[in-house]
Every structure is written in structure tokens, then in C-alpha cells.
Amino acid sequence: MGFQLTFKALSDPIRREILQLLRTSPLTAGEIAAHFSVSNATISHHLSILKDAELVLDEKQGKYITYELNMTVVDEILGWFYTLKGGDFNEKDN
Amino acid sequence: MGFQLTFKALSDPIRREILQLLRTSPLTAGEIAAHFSVSNATISHHLSILKDAELVLDEKQGKYITYELNMTVVDEILGWFYTLKGGDFNEKDN
DNA sequence: TAGATATTTAGATAAATATCTAAATATTAT
DNA sequence: ATAATATTTAGATATTTATCTAAATATCTA
């Protein structure tokens, strides 16, 4: 539980919007890129940051790569916020 | 509810640790700075970023400035994560 | 096998960020 | 008033980041 990659990943507005896009169902890289006005390469870069943070999972399906939200990590980060609201907190996990 | 400043503020490990320090009670800038090995000026800079994000509130008390957690904004950010978990989401608020 | 499509990787660049030291501001105490 | 203490602001610098274009890789289809 090192949260550095997770929070860094969440600090960019495009990456947060990608997560919201994936809220209802998985999408391919191209479908995701179509929602934005930056290049596909840039979206690919953002996806790799989300992947490193384990906020998304990817699955290769033939020509396409499908991305989906990883709820496990979303829940872990929620846990971090709950420590702020009075729960326990292990200082090492930051 | 523009979350950009909030998430940016949370993306630095020192700032997250400051928030955890303030979990139980308010502290002065100096008390906060004493927990870290960077200069007071640097901590002051981090505090100003947390303040801009409204994650902390400050109150001048004579020679000291006391900082405390702003739970209101913590709760707002929790709301953002809940949209990811199936709730409603207004795309403008990102 | 060639050509088309989907995605990522590489290399470059401009902007943003964290940090430092030194100086400024404000408050308290002698 | 002067000195000491607490904090912030200013200016500089090195690192990180988001973005682009062009090239590489992988898969599908005719």
C-alpha cells in the first residue's frame, strides 16, 4: 500500500475523466481516446500511468486493448480517506 | 466543485502526511514543520497549497498560525470516489 | 503476403513542481 | 525601541510532467 502512484495518477484531469468513463463498462483505448482532444499517444501515456497505479486493468483482445476500472484500488484509496476521518492510520503506509 | 486543486494537493507525499498529522488536532506551522526534514519555507509552501485546495483551514493566533483539517472538502472528495462506485456523476464537475 | 487498423514506444520540448537560501513581515518580550 | 521568534514571500534551480510527431509492434483482412 504505497499510495504515491495512485495519488499522482489521480492528479491529472484527463486521467480522472478516463476513470469516470470506465465507471459503467470497459472501453478500448481507441474509444477512450475518442473522448478527448489530445493525441492517441498522449492517451496511451495516461493509460499507462493509470495502469502502473493499478487503477485500471487491461486485457488484450485481438487488435484491441480493453481497459476497465480496478475497484480494489479505488477501495484502498477510500480507506486512506477514512483514516483522515478518525480511523486508524499506519504512518508507514503513505 | 472543481477538484483539480484538491487532487493536485493530494499528489505530494509530504502534503498527505501533513493531513494525517492534523487528523487528531490542529497544529501550528512550526509543529508541522518539525515532523519533516525539509526547510520551514518548503513546509510553508506545502501548507499554502493545502490551503488553496481548502483541505486545511488556518487561523492566526498571535505569533502562531494554526492549521486544521477541513473535513468538508475531505467529504466532497469522498463523494467523487463514490461516483466511481456506481453513483451519479456530472461530467462538468471534474 | 500486403495493406489497413489499433495501440504503444521513443525522442523532443515547454510548462509545472519541489526545494533551497535569503529576505520580508508580524508578533511578543525585555 | 530592540531583539528574538514564527511564518511567509521572493528568486533561483533541478526535476518531473504533459504533450506532440514519428516510428515501431501487433493483429486482422483481402
Protein chain pair with the most extensive contact, residues per chain: A-B, 25 and 25 residues
Fraction in helix of chain A = 40-55%
Q: What Rg of chain A, in angstroms, do the CA atoms define?
A: 14 Å
Quick one: biggest sheet of chain A? 3 strands, antiparallel
The counted number of beta strands of chain A is 3
This entry's quaternary arrangement is homodimer
Elements of chain A, N to C (H/E): HHEHHEEH
Number of helices of chain A: 5
| Mean model confidence by pLDDT of chain A | 92
- List segments of chain A where confidence is low: pLDDT < 50 over at least 5 consecutive residues: 89-94
Major β-sheet strand ordering of chain A: 1-3-2
Cα separation of the termini of chain A: 8 Å
Task: Tell me, briefly, the overall form of chain A.
Answer: elongated
Please indicate the percent range of residues of chain A in DSSP E strands (runs of 2 or more): 5-15%
> What structural class should be given to the helix and strand makeup of chain A?
alpha+beta
Give a quick set of tags describing it.
homodimer, alpha+beta, three-stranded antiparallel β-sheet, 5 helices, DNA-binding
How would you sum up this structure in a few lines?
Chain A is α+β, with helices and mostly antiparallel strands and 94 residues long. The first copy, chain A, has helices at 4-10, 13-21, 29-34, 40-52, 71-84; strands at residues 27-28, 56-61, 64-69. Chain A has a 3-stranded antiparallel beta sheet with strand order 1-3-2.
